[in-house]
Amino acid sequence: MHDYLRAIGFSNFKKKTSISKLLDIVMESPDREYSLQPNEDGIIFAEKSRNFVVNGGITVRGEVDGNGIFSYDYYFPHYRGRSISMKEIVTTQKLPDREDYEGICEACDQGMSMIFHLNRISDYSAENMEDTIDRYGNPISRICGTNVRLSALSVGGKVLIPLCRQREGIGPGRTRKEARSGTVGNEFLNPAADMVTGGSELQNYVRAERRLPAEDVFSIVDSYFKPSANGISYDQYSVLGDIIDCRTCRNQITGEMLYQMLVSTNGITVDVCMNSMDLYGEPEPGRRFLGDIWLQGDVQV
Q1: Which of 10, 97, 146, 294 is the least buried, fewest Cβ under 10 Å from its Cβ?
Q2: Which residues contact 258 (CB under 8 A, 6 or more apart)?
Q3: What pLDDT was estimated at residue 176?
Q4: Contact 208/220 with Cβ under 8 angstroms?
Q5: For each of the chain's 301 residues, which pLDDT tens digit applies?
Q6: For strand 257-265 and strand 236-250, is the pairing parallel, antiparallel, or unpaired?
Q7: What would the 3-class secondary structure string for the chain be?
Q8: What is the distance between the alpha carbons of residues 223 and 288, in angstroms, rounded to a whole number?
Q9: For residues 117 and 106, what is the distance between their CA atoms, to the nearest angstrom?
Q10: CA–CA distance, 21 with 27 (Å, rounded to integer)
Q11: CA angle (81, 86, 88) in 5-degree steps
C-alpha cells in the first residue's frame, strides 16, 4: 500500500529509510493503541495508529513479545469517515497471508457484496461477534446490527460537472431508495433519469445506445459504484458520485494539501481523502467525483 501514502500527504516518502523514520514516529508516539487477546501460541497481536491529517494517518501492526516489546509486521495508511454510510450485518474475515482483516456486507441497493479494509482490529474482536459457517463449511464471523462508516483513499480522480436535474430529483444527499419510494421527485430534465431510477433494462439499454454516439457517457450515467478494473484487490473500486461536502487540510509533517470529500454514490456516502496533486479539477458541493478508491471502513456496534 505504499502508493496510498501520497493520499495522506506523503507523496515523497518512497525510500525505505524515510518510511522507517515515519513508522518510528507512529510506534514511539501513537494516538491510539490496541491489542488482541493472546492466541493459542501465546502471541499477542497489536496495532498502533497516529494521525497526520484530520482523521487520517498511518497504522502499524505487529506482535508484542513477553517483555512487552512491539515489533511491527506491516503498516498501511488509514482514513476514517465522518458519517455513517449504512447499517448492515458485516461479515469479517482474516486474510490468509497476514494478520489483516476485511469486512463484507451484502449491500442490497448495490446488487453486490461490498468488501472493505477494516481499519481497526478492535472491530474484529467485537464482543457481540457471532461465529457461523458459510455455505462451503468454512468458519466465518459476523457482527450484527452495526453502523458502517465507509471511507476511502484515492490516488487519482477528476471533477465532473453535475447533470441537470429537475426540481427535487436525486440530488446530492438523496438516495435512489428515497426516490423509488416517492419521498422525493424522480424526474430529471436529463432523459438519463430512467437509467438511474427505473424502467426495464431493455428500455435503458435502447435509450443509452441512441445517445452514446452523440454524447459523452458521463452525461448519461448519473453515478456508479463498481469493482475497479485496475485493482488487484477486492476492496478497490471505481466510483462516480455527487460531492456533498469538501474540506481541505494539510499534512502535519509535509504540509501537502489534501481534499476530503463526502461523496454520494448509488445511495451510499463515502468519505474520500486524496492529495490535491492527484485530483484534476476543483471540487465543490454539487459537482461530481470520478476516480478509483481503496475502500476502508469502521464498524460501530
Answers
A1: 97
A2: 7, 8, 9, 53, 56, 248, 249, 250, 251, 273, 274, 275, 276
A3: 41
A4: yes
A5: 578 999 999 999 989 999 999 999 999 999 999 888 887 777 888 999 999 999 999 999 999 887 888 988 999 999 998 888 888 878 887 777 777 888 888 765 666 788 999 998 877 665 445 666 555 555 566 666 578 899 999 999 999 988 766 544 444 444 444 433 333 333 333 444 444 444 555 565 566 556 656 555 666 677 888 888 765 678 999 999 999 999 999 999 999 999 999 999 988 899 999 999 999 999 999 999 999 999 999 887 6
A6: antiparallel
A7: CHHHHHHHCCCCCCCHHHHHHHHHHHHHCCCEEEECCCCCCCCEEEEEEEEEECCEEEEEEEEECCCCCEEEEEEEEEECCCCCCEEEEEEEEECCCCCCEEEEEEEHHHCEEEEEEECCHHHHCCCCCEEEECCCCCEEEEEEEEEEEEEEEECCEEEECCCCCCCCCCCCCCCHHHHHHCCCCCCCCCCCHHHHHCCCHHHHHHHHHHHCCCCCHHHCCCCEEEECCCCCCCCEEEEEEEEEEEEEEECCCCCCEEEEEEEEECCEEEEEEEEHHHEECCCCCCCEEEEEEEEEEEEEC
A8: 9
A9: 15
A10: 10
A11: 125
Q: How far is CA 61 from the centre of its chain?
A: 20
Hey, what's the cell of 26? 507512529
Q: Are 103 and 89 in contact (CB under 8 A)?
A: no
Please give the Cα distance from 67 to 12 (Å, whole number).
35
C-alpha cell at 259: 481534499
CA distance 217 to 274: 25
